[in-house]
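tool=predict chain=A
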Amino acid sequence: MPAARSRLVALAAVLDLACVLGFAAAGRSAHAEDGGVVGVLGTAWPFLVAAAVGWAALPAWRDPVRVWPTGVTVWAVTWGLGLALRGLTGGGLAIPFVVVAAAVLAVAMVGWRAVLTAVTASARRRQVGDPARAR
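tool=predict ok
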């Protein structure tokens, strides 16, 4: 794998992990839960494991920044398997948590890919000259 491609894959994986950690940290903060980094990792671990499984199962590294199927699939596995692992290990699965987890993780994990795709497409149009803008 060329160096630039390796960096892109690593960046995409780090962004997905940051999304999961941000979700866990925001949730803990919203509920005034203490525990610092250990507490965040305790909340995030099922979703971190699930994200890794999603990356491996897809395999996401082939096209890590695509919204579909990569972003949607990695998000769905992260959310679904993350909830399953959380439930199996005694974590709460209240309906509001399930809904918020789905929404926040989708906006974050699919969202960064959508923004990057839009910015990249816009830059390409400017670079080659957009015929629609020439009118």
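Residues 23 and 119 are 24 Å apart (CA to CA). DSSP finds four helices and no strands in the chain.
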